[in-house]
Amino acid sequence: MNRLTSRLSLVGLAAALSLSAACSSSQRGADPENPYQLDVAVLAANEFYSIPWLVGQKRGFFEEHGVKVGKIVAGSGGSATLRTQLSGDLPIGEVGYNSVLHAAKEGVPLVAVGGGVQNTHGGEYYARKDNDEVNKLADIRSWAYTNPGSSIYALSFMILEEAGLPTKAERVAAGGVGEGVALLEAGKVDVAWLPPTLASRHKDDFKLVVRTHDYVDKFQASVITTSPRFAKDHPDVVKAVLAGYQEAIKWATGNPEETAKLYAAHVDVSYDAALEVVKGATGAVAWNIGFNPESLKSGTKSAELSGLKGGVDYCGLFDGSFLPRGATAELPTDCS
């Protein structure tokens, strides 16, 4: 998506979100006896991002707080997830942080009410297994990333910078994760970024070259968003969703085997592959419903490398008043 198309799309999103909020404003609130029903849009819903939503849905944690999550609607990327959320009249979604910052700059009425994934777990850089010339970070001369302006693009700079290596390299916009795999298979690039589930399917084809978290750990990958209108009209619904999400994280961490069964059925992978993904995410403490200032600053740096200008109004974009007990709400700036 080019800059003009992106700008026009975000203008449309602003109108869509206003309409979505208006349509939702007359509905009732959260009630465990008669739960408020909603669908949610989730970034990369076939990857580990979906696990807290899936666990909360299947184990009844959302319903205990008075909401019922129906469909977990997949978005194919940060801005695509935002479009899915808004065009589908979905009041709450988990969206790529980078895309949220760009959308807020364009005037899309958004509020970040909860954290999501707050480190770089969930994707590493792989080379072809038969490529003997690429075995470590310093060997890489060409990188495949998903789309212009993506956090994956920015991380290719941040990793090299943290390693003390030159950041100059060939970077190829593949157009998506699958397209990046195709470029890698064809020998057009040295490395491509693969998420865990996809990587588990290609163990015989590719080798891990760069573990992102060895260089960049704290990193705001996603946030849970809604519209200011929906948050004002349905504060108890927003609180219920976040509380259910928090409980789902705790349960998944303590019950990886049962979580893997749910996830395997959801994404149609083997139990062993699903268990590897679940244990990887829980072991990395990937999810956090609250806000972490270091993760936010790192995520903001990624957005700036991807073209964001003018800084971030953290106090205007984030609202920690909906967070459940025990969640942190610390931002990079003082909003008192």
UniProtKB/TrEMBL annotation:
Keywords: Signal. Residues 1-30 form the signal peptide. Residues 48-258 form the SsuA/THI5-like domain. The keyword Signal applies. Coiled coil: none annotated. The keyword Signal applies. It holds the Pfam family NMT1. This is NitT/TauT family transport system substrate-binding protein. The lineage of its organism: Bacteria, Bacillati, Actinomycetota, Actinomycetes, Streptosporangiales.
